[in-house]
Design brief:
- By secondary structure, the chain is mainly beta.
- Helices cover about 5% and strands about 45% of the residues.
- It is built from 2 helices and 23 strands.
- The strands form 5 sheets. Strands 15, 16, 17, 18, 19 and 23 form a 6-stranded antiparallel β-sheet that branches. Strands 6-10-9-8-7 form a 5-stranded mixed β-sheet, with no helix packed on it. A 4-stranded antiparallel β-sheet has the order 1-22-21-20.
- Strand 17 and strand 18 form a beta hairpin.
- The two termini are about 20 Å apart.
- About 50% of the residues are buried.
- The structure holds beta-D-mannopyranose.
- The site of beta-D-mannopyranose has 10 residues, from strand 7.
Length: about 325
């Protein structure tokens, strides 16, 4: 059916779908892959991003320390499953041409990492008199450069597209507020230079009837390019009488004009079910920030934060996601 446009990744971490399992996304059977205390100072490690790197894997991890300060750390893995995370947070230097004030630090969380052309771009929720989208890059996960914030406060979940669209860099984001934000729609923006952002477009918002995505929706991992359009995994939030519940679902965006939603799912594809997703610092949260993909097989490995405490891994394929979305469609 649909084909992923991109590189083969024969060493993608992978397990086949368990026999008799009828849902579109299945868990790694040794989850969570990253415990809350993998590094000596961490209270929790979750909502993190991984990429293929030099034949192995690298990533940027959200580690809240035992003072519960939110920061991002680089990490490395031979197999994408067993990770070594640096014990000190990433230190950014100003990117060439950027004023040193760009590296002023309040807090950093929920990183995404995206290879575009010649480097790995990192976006994260950056404290700047309120949350906004921090932007940086690295070539080697050793030296990190920080650029201008992509927007004024308040915004979260800045997620880059892995290639330029209409000649410009492109980003999805979710405008927000100073607190836990009881609303949230997904927007699209373009930039010629990763500094000045504009051409803002509305992508989609919450649903009036699909409960899991009725309170807010926000972009998750880097969108996956397919021959049918951009496959977007996004998080959706329900307000229950016991607080927010975070699940994720899928939509398909137009290839040339990604603010146009071609299809969207009515059912979530993944949500909190296991004990490490249901219980933790914030119960009932599954929050995806990255995928690895293998263009040869259509395999997709998802990395997600569980209960704002640990990191899990789950598996699916492009066909599993598209056929589930089409079996249970949401109007667009
Ligand atoms: C969101 C973000 C995420 C977090 C989620 C659930 O607003 O802060 O980092 O995982 O809430 O607490």
């Amino acid at each position: 059916m649909a084909k992923i446009i991109g590189n083969a990744l024969p060493n993608i971490p992978w397990q086949d779908k368990p026999q008799g399992y009828d849902k579109p996304v299945w868990r790694y059977d040794h989850n969570p892959i990253i415990p809350r205390d993998l590094i000596p100072t961490s209270n929790s490690i979750f909502n993190s991003a991984v990429v293929p790197f030099e034949g192995k894997f690298a990533g940027v991890f959200r580690c809240d320390n035992r003072s519960v300060e939110m920061d991002i750390f680089a990490g490395f893995s031979d197999d994408g499953i067993n990770w070594k995370i640096n014990h000190e947070p990433i230190e950014f230097q100003p990117a060439p041409g950027c004023d040193p004030c760009v590296t002023r630090k309040e807090y950093r969380y929920d990183p995404r990492v995206c290879w575009i052309e010649d480097r790995y771009y990192i976006t994260w929720c950056n404290g700047f008199h309120g949350p906004t989208i921090g932007v940086g890059y690295t070539y080697d996960f050793k030296t990190f450069y920080q650029m201008e914030n992509a927007s004024l406060p308040y915004n979260r979940n800045g997620v880059m597209f892995p290639k330029k669209i209409n000649g410009n860099f492109a980003m999805l984001s979710r405008p927000s507020d100073t607190g836990h934000t009881p609303f949230g729609d997904i927007f699209y923006s373009e930039s010629p230079d990763m500094t000045y952002w504009g051409k803002h477009r509305y992508v989609f918002g919450t649903s009036s009837h699909s409960g899991w995505q009725s309170k807010k929706v926000g972009p998750g991992p880097i969108p996956i390019e397919t021959d049918e359009g951009w496959l977007m995994i996004y998080h959706g939030v329900l307000t229950s009488c016991n607080g927010f519940v975070y699940r994720f679902g899928v939509a398909l965006l137009d290839h040339e004009k990604p603010w146009i939603v071609k299809e969207r799912g009515n059912f979530y594809v993944f949500g909190p079910e296991e004990s490490y997703e249901l219980t933790g610092d914030v119960p009932n949260v599954t929050f995806p920030c990255a995928t690895l993909t293998d263009a040869d097989t259509g395999r997709i490995t998802i990395y997600y934060g569980a209960a704002d405490t640990v990191t899990g891994m789950a598996f699916t394929t492009v066909d599993e996601l598209l056929s589930y979305m089409r079996k249970y469609p949401h109007e667009v």
